[in-house]
Amino acid sequence: MSQEGYDHTAVEKRWQEAWDDASVYRTPDEVDDPTYVLGMYPYPSGKLHMGHVRNYTITDAYARYRRMRGDDVLHPMGWDAFGLPAENAAKERDTNPRDWTFDCIDTMRGQMQSMGFGYDWDREVTTCTPEYYQWNQWLFRRFHEAGLVERRDAEVNWCPSCETVLADEQVEGDDELCWRCDTPVETRDLDQWFLEITEYADELLDAIDGLEGWPDSVRQMQRNWIGRQHGTTLEFHVDGHGPVEAFTTRVDTIHGATFFALAPDHPISEELARSDEDVRRFVEEDADPEGDEPNGVETDLTATNPATGEEIPVFVADFVLSDVGTGALMAVPGHDERDHAFAEKMGVDIEPVIAPEPGEWDGESVPDAPDVSEAAFTDDGVVINSGQYSGLDSETARDRLTEDIESAEATTQYRLRDWGISRQRYWGTPIPVVHCDDCGSVLVPESDLPVELPEFINTTGNPLDAAEEWKETTCPECGGPATRETDTMDTFVDSSWYFLRYVSPGDEALPFDLDRANDWMPVDQYVGGIEHAVMHLLYSRFVTKVLADEEGLEHREPFTNLLAQGMVQLEGEKMSKSKGNVVSPQRIVDEYGADTARLFMMQAAQPERDFDWSEEGVKSTHRFLARLTDLVEGYAAGEAETAPAGADRDTIDDYVDDEIDAAVAIAGGEYDDLTFNVALREAQDLVGTLRSYRGHTDPHPETYERGIDVAVRLLAPVVPHLAEELWETLDRDGFVVEADWPTATVDRETVERRRRLVENTREDVRDIVEVAGIEDPERIDVVVAPDWKYDALAIAIDSDADNLISELMAESHIRDRGDDAASYGQDLQANREALQETLSGDDEYEALRAASWLIEREFDAPVRVERAADADDAVVRKAEPGRPAIDIVE
Fold it and tell me: What's the whole-model pTM score?
């Protein structure tokens, strides 16, 4: 086989057809509890991009690995097929979203199949089909029956370009841009349907700690988004406007409140703007909530501090937000950094009322006040300058003040808002409601579901508003004329439960088979982008909890383990069409093969990290696969000379056998942890070792065959097509995808100690040769430490005695070594924190003998590995566990 390459096109097509004919990836319904591996299903935009390929290669490799470990595996795929881009594309092309979407699906499905992804295509779901979206409508009814749906007039986020409402989670960045088109988002008042996710806010937050298989970053993003704060609501009386409610988490600082602040869109601010030019200018022109520093304008109003009765000035300030708290706050510059910056700018008093050190309060001596002239003191502490509350710790003061202030009430607030699901677009799930003049808003009966979309009308705004015949219907309650709801559901409703549909995709009676879902769920390993942390992932958790409460699901979390994969970049930048730096996956498959693309992508970096696409890296990977093919085909053809059958094993055979075990021991654990790059490094290094083995000696036939067999199996999850081809070349039975994962007789810890020993020894030889200027060594002796030193090291590692020397000398076989024991004991005492366990003396001897050929080959000199009892005492004294003595004869 030439190392120029192999016919990847023929190989990949052949095995894709063979897997399909044998239904290798089908998961039977009767399986009890398969390992559920899932990549976030894609939006069918037209073609796969590199982000898709990376995501799905990760899940495919892991699914293949679990299958080889003997698991039944559920690894399905589907399409997040509703959404505005398809609607816009259809308008531009004067077609309809359905045809456009299914054309895209056909293209992307074909690309997925060409990548060799092992999906159970019998379980494919497509969310834009009535067979799927009727269950969105069914869920809407169930949520409504559970009291978790509300229709109300609300101020909503509106994208003027997309002409639809956006959820808070779909408004991105400081500039508040639409998540799809980057248009600045506006606010409007509209009648909207909401799912009351806030009813589950506490559980969604409290359960985050139990998501141990999720990245910390995603868990923290969800905590921040839910934004639970325990505090106090209380009323400040504002001149001419009566009581105004404010929320604070630090009511213990209320005696230090030196001004009161209102959001620019607070009703009082808007009223003032009509009569006060300064306030109008600030509210309409100058307010910048996303600015680097707080800005505001003073009003003619004052507010009465309910704890002190003092009048404090009222400001309209852009750092006060109407959707956080109440849109009004008491400002305590001494103990809040934002308030401090504003007070400095506006010349407002800054007064300390919390001291950093709790002290004994005797009613006379006052704890030292912090210096708050330059910066606020924001920690809890002891209350000062606060009348009868002085001397209390902050927590106690908060409780007492909340009890004592008449208008105060302990309150828990959340940043999370209810999930507005109404979208003024066509290409989505129709909300199953009709509006009747007599009966109001009425749910469509379950027997009438699905409410199907009418034919697409190419018009501005919402095409459903123009579907007059479709809109006209009768009321399910009174039989009178009624109008259908023309809003469709947010497409995140589709993805909030799709993983359940894969369990029973053909079920015509229910969205999922409950018994099977309780056996098969939750998803064991989920993979997708971190950009879904506070949308899809949060919504999926919410819907799962509701289904647990209302439908009998036995799990309350949908995904046990989550991997947020990094981006594929080009020269440090995210690939995008607008930048013109997109690398086509299809070109790579056509030119180099799917296995090359898969292997390069998986070996380039840990899955959660970004990495740079490199054409040279792809070529290098392709060359490796050619070398692997050459190795296996050469062995199968008998081109490599091997030792005669039954021949004695040499030390080099022992070394290679050890390295085969080592590769298995490490790769398996790395596949378990999804650190594929480390697992693949082991497999590729093993291939390199086998090629060196073949070139250095006549390999022992059993060792050589086992090494090649193991290398193919270790690579099979990532390069499945070539692995199948080589498996057949080796005349193995069945598919490699169904083969057993190789086993090893050694654990990882032993492997790492052995490798550390060999590498340190080789490095020591290099150092001696370089420092001594030895050009042509005659012989290299490697001497293993005496047994008593291993015993002394073990004692030192286990000991917590202050005087290690005394403990060592209590052992007669160590004490009998006299000065050598004392000297070694002092070394151990001095380095106790850095001591590491090593192999035993016998194991070090065997490992060094097996690896001696590496040193012989590097320095072109014979190597003799000796035990301490067989070596010169002067050399033995230099030997330590894990660091044999080196004696080079010139």
Answer: 0.90
Instruction: Answer yes or no: are the C-beta atoms of 792 and 821 closer than 8 Å.
Output: yes
Amino acid (one-letter) located at 227: G
At CA 561, angle to CA 428 and CA 596, rounded to 5? 85
Say how far apart CA 524 and CA 36 lie, in whole Å: 5
**Is 14 exposed, middle or buried, given 0-12, 13-18 or 19+ CB atoms closer than 10 A?**
middle
* Lowest mean pLDDT, pick from 76-90, 362-376, 549-563, 807-821: 362-376
Q: Which residues have C-beta within 8 Å of that of residue 163, sequence separation ≥ 6?
A: 424, 425, 460, 461, 462
Give the pLDDT confidence score for residue 172 in this predicted structure. Answer: 84
Q: What would you measure as the largest C-alpha separation in the chain, in angstroms?
A: 108
Separation CA 73–CA 87 (nearest Å): 36
Q: What are the residues whose beta carbons fall under 8 Å from the beta carbon of 882, sequence distance 6 or more?
A: 753, 756, 757, 760, 836, 838, 839, 844
Which class for 803: exposed (0-12), middle (13-18), buried (19 or more C-beta within 10 A)?
exposed
Q: Is 259 helix (H, G, I), strand (E, B) or coil?
A: strand
* C-beta of residue 526 within 8 angstroms of C-beta of residue 38: yes
Name all contacts of 362-370 with Cβ < 8 Å and 24+ positions apart: 363/391, 366/390, 367/391, 370/334
Any idea what the Cα angle at residue 82 is, between residues 80 and 87, rounded to 5°?
135
Residue carrying structure tokens 């420092």 = 771
What pLDDT is attached to residue 872? 93
Residue 283 structure tokens: 């509210």
pLDDT in tens, 304-359: 999 999 999 999 999 998 777 789 999 999 999 999 999 999 999 999 999 987 55
Residue 191 has φ and ψ, to the nearest 5°, of -75, 125
pLDDT tens readout for residues 726-744:
999 999 999 999 999 999 9
For 406-433, b/e burial (b = at least 16 CB within 10 A) is eebeebebbebbbbbbbbbbbbbbbbbb
Q: Two tokens at 882?
A: 């894990």
